[in-house]
Amino acid sequence: MSHQPEKSRDIHRPPVLRPGHSLQSVTEKISTIVLTKHTSRGWWLGFILGFAGVMLLLLGITYLFIAGIGIWGLNVPVAWGFAIVNFVWWIGIGHAGTLISAILLLLKQQWRTSINRFAEAMTIFAVACAGLFPLLHLGRPQFFYFLVPYPSTTGVWPQFRSPLMWDFFAVATYFTVSLLFWYMGLIPDFATLRDRAHRWGAKVTYGILAMGWRGSSRHWRRYQDAYLLLAGLATPLVVSVHTIVSFDFAVGIVPGWHETIFPPYFVAGAIYSGFAMVFTLAIPLRAAYGLQDFITDRHLDNSAKVMLASGLIVAYGYLMEGFMAWYSGHAFETYVFTNRFTGPYAPAYWALIICNIVIPQALWFRKIRRTPITLFFISLVINVGMWLERFIIVVVSLHRDHLPSSWDNYSPTFWDWALFLGTIGLFTSLLFLFIRFLPMISIAEMRELVEEHEQHAEQAHASGQSNPPLHDRPVTEEGRTQPGTESPGEGPPPERPPDQPPGGGGPPESP
Amino acid sequence: MVPLQPYYGLLAEFSEPEDVVAAARAVHEEGYVRAEAYAPYPVEGLSEALGFTRSRIPLLVLCGAFLGGIGGYYLQYWVSALEYPLNIGGRPLNSWPAFIPVTFECTILVAALFAVLGMLALNGLPQPHHPLFNVPEFAYASTDRFFLVIRTDDPLFHETRTRELLAGLRPMAIYEVPWV
User: Under an 8 A CB cutoff, do B120 and A177 touch?
Assistant: First the structure.
């Protein structure tokens, strides 16, 4: 794979892999995080906090099963409350993982390599959290299997014309395919861990998970074919999932829901919130585990650009909703739209605009895109903003619809919050288990990256450029250009290390 | 199974990907058919150098996609039009536009399952043990070393000539792979 035409452009950006790495060092660095006996205090602290959330979740679910969904703040116009808000929010977060692992793979974006593994993990855990809510919302969750088309003695079959059935198939498929994709990517890394583990238990566990992978060239060939095809399948899948989630709303006739812009607007929103979550996780992780060599400022910069672009599509969606409310001349549509920013939930709407549209405009500045701490805070703001967006869509559209006599307000109860915070706890603890027991960066793909970099360096060397080979060059602070000065001087400038503050490398960001 | 040969094969170790590709090509040109190369990441051109140019994965995935798509649509058609017809305002029973989402999801699901399970099946995985794991140095095949094995059951295999051929390819080392 030659990136000759791209190279001259690449050289002005921070690298996707800090120079000086070999196959051995990459393998060692990533696998040691997993294979070490030492579990850090920070890990325990995070895990215990997450686990406390899991306990809260279990408490909420137990009481829900005993008492029914009356414990939530639901009422008759607002029959979809937090459960659906959280469902859409979580499933949206998952989408960035698939986008990074599948779409960017097909587009041959090298920078995806070091962030795809944990983004995929994020997808799976987020979809697991999302999947809980519709089931809990059923009222009698023990009957959720009625959704599965199986021959039952009652002779009753599911209604395939209902968006809720589409949703069930979409989410179940999404979860399964994401899991397959993730597991398949892990197989060669399990083999590495099996071969490097010293303890018997770890050797056997990773050995079983690796399924006897030994890196045969024929196996790799089939593996690559299958992986690429899986990426090709996951790409339309991820678009379809949030499209179908938006159909849950758009197929209904509630004003504020019945809009044709919903599918693209939801997909863009999903990518937006997903990338925000990637930042929320990646920035503390790379600081805590010293992974700045692999997750470089280039990754942050590129992801921030994707986030900004999807955020602008979301902004367009808001604008279009307003335009259509006015242009349609439909009294209910117009009312629902104005009610959003003048009604009882107006503070939530204005907060949404500030979080999702105003603050993220800071990402236009390169300086901000390459400063982890500001990115981290912007990502938190976007996470909040996207949650508010779903709240506005679900609750504010429902609470005052066609029949003014049945208007009512919705306010969440303790149990609504318990389940929401509980799933955040579940997500956090699963993520902490993941970073402790599985390699959070794909080792096999990083090796490919190392090899490609070496080849590039050799080519550059052979063609008389002044670039020393990447793998034996020390990281220097010289040759840095100032941020914002894009145009190079004459002649190829030296490879530029990431734009971080001198003495950086361990920015003080922490969750 | 009682192996006829005294050992599984001869294993040559290399440190650079280009060397193992060159060695694989040389061994293949020599006429060996039961040779295999091992690498810590997919090395470009390595399987082709050994004469393995076509994997059947794409065909398999296509079959899975067709199976899932047709099966998914038929499931909905059978349920909604044949087994459990519901007349809702006289609308058609075979309401195909409403069946698109589930058909699509089934297509993807079965194709993806075929891709992963097919890859594992064609690769003969899971296979908990393999004679190569008896060579301690083979553990580096998952870090930074490249290996080439010529199996003893290859028709061209010859105790000394094969060893000389491998030695001529300048490996770092040559190992006999024991059966147990």
Answer: no
